[in-house]
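Sorry to interrupt, but I need a hand with the structure work. It will help me judge whether the discrete encoding reads sensibly. Write everything out right here, beneath this request:
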Amino acid sequence: MKKGAAVAEETLVIGCHLSCSKGYAQMARDAASIGANTFQFFTRNPRGGKAKPIDPADIALYHQLAAEAGIQTIVAHAPYTLNLCAANPDTRQFAIDTMADDLLRMESTPHQLYNFHPGSHVKQGPEEGIRLIVDGLNQVLAPEQTTTVLLETMAGKGTEMGRSFEELAAIIDGVELNDHLGVCLDTCHIWDGGYNVAALDDVLEEFDRVVGLDRLKAVHLNDSKNPLGAAKDRHELIGDGHIGFEALSAVTRHPALRHLPFNLETPNETLDGYAREIAALRAAWA
């Protein structure tokens, strides 16, 4: 058993989305300050653009601070602008080039997770969307990479891909190096997409049948401003939305999920808000 697996069995691995503007070491400090032992960050500006150069000194200090804070797993989030199944070839190439660069940069923190939104087929149809996403992933994944790339479950607004477990399974099945692929389950997204988080066993049974629970590598823990099946994707504070605290806490406690890293993407304006949510979920987890 890996060292990280033993730790995950003993404590809730939970954090939130942090700003990467001041580097990796500062993210480790911020995570520790709110009682987090994991975190998520954008690899670059969420609207795209160039990434800041990796600073070896910052990375070295990060590893020291992360060890002190018990941080073993982190999740990098690709920019929102990436669309592997865009109708425009230049947009697709931008996504491919950016993902390839991100995955090279991820090797400075090896054996971590890289999450991305599958994209929008832009009226080309979901079958073509799946084909293009598969093609893009086949270009960027490398046998030697240590990073696991995660397809995020989506709410299904517009022509968004990843709205169903079946779409995710079709993408994974088509990729040659799919041992480098996993899934990040977003509770708000699947709720808005019609999967009842409050009936968690049923949802996980379906996920296991269609995709396989071994593919589930991380969870975005978010409440929803919308009723079940709204397909709108609007996050809410834990306990203030339609899913509710008890159902979301149950996600962290479920035997099939409790070892995973959970990251909050709730609309908190300060780190103090995340600290309160983390403390409440920890108290309910034991």
The CA atoms of residues 142 and 199 lie 38 Å apart.
